[in-house]
Amino acid sequence: MNDFKAEPAELQTEMLAAVQRVIASGWYVLGPEVQAFEQRWAEDCQLPRAIGVGNGMDAIELILRGLNIGPGDEVITTPMTAFASVLAILRAGAVPVLADIDPDTALLSRASVERCLTPRTRAVLLVHLYGQVRDMAEWQILARDKGFALVEDCAQSHRATLGGVRAGGFGVAGAYSFYPTKNLGALGDGGAVVTRDMALADRVARLRNYGQSERYHHPEIGMNSRLDEMQAAILSVRLNWLAGYTERRQQIAQRYRAELKQPAIRLLAAPQETAAHAYHLFVVCSAHRDALVAHLKAAGVQALLHYPVPMHHQQTCLDMRRDPLGLPASEQHALQCLSLPCHPQLDDAQLDQVIAAVNSFRAI
């Protein structure tokens, strides 16, 4: 699903030079490398501010805390996501509420969210799952009319756009992860908050650093969640390659959409007309998933499941409040979803192999 060892030697040389630059500087935390990357990432996201933090989960928590969302407040999100999305809400002290997904996209259903709204709803955490951004005008209208904050989980949507607007630019703020497997990945953990709300940006910048306003002055309780200089320098290098890598992911996805002729699988909805899908993952659904996975493995093709256990089936989330009509679309998707290789190091011969393997499957 990923092949970091196949990355170009030029990229590896550039990263080594960045690491050496940090070592030579003698400055390892919240220094010039972080500042430079924050500026570049804000520009790439077409927003005025980016704040580097420890990881993507912390980015969500810091946004919620920056908005004074905490005990007694409800935050609606999807059960079809990484556990970190829900854990960030819990760590902020708020109450997660699970709404169902749209089966055609696997994204959060607005109708389900509306059924989950209560007077205690303070935010909706919208996860741009798999790298797709959809229907954002409708989400903005709902947030305005119902009075909640729209927070974007952009962990899988680096450089995804809709109508020319990048992920993270639709709501009050966006949370990015730079975990190594992400479209823009560090060589360790990392994350960022992006926003056009300058007051929120300033508060997040304080909260990530013990709540410190100036050295030795802590006007509020913060946390330790700082993007370090080494990872920032590496991310600045890798950012130079992101556009080309994203284009390669899109080329792979276009071939899948054109050439997969397998009646035992269902493709998710194609991107909207003005959208650029980042294709962090290329996901299909199959009622014969286990047999298909075994078939692909025998053909030398790796496939993974993202995510086979929805949040409300996690041991720690069994009593979590949810859509009163249940979460049937999420449960069905979790049983059938399957991710095919879609990383930028996948060459055309390997792509041919994946397509041939999928098309040769025969459901019994």
From TrEMBL:
Keyword Lipid metabolism: no
Keywords: Aminotransferase, Pyridoxal phosphate, Transferase
Molecular function per GO: transaminase activity
Matching CDD domains: AHBA_syn
Pfam families membership: DegT_DnrJ_EryC1
E.C. code: 2.6.1.-
Gene3D superfamilies: Aspartate Aminotransferase, domain 1, Type I PLP-dependent aspartate aminotransferase-like (Major domain)
Family classification: Belongs to the DegT/DnrJ/EryC1 family.
Alphabetical list of PANTHER family matching this protein: 3-OXO-GLUCOSE-6-PHOSPHATE:GLUTAMATE AMINOTRANSFERASE, TRANSAMINASE
Listed name of the protein: DegT/DnrJ/EryC1/StrS family aminotransferase
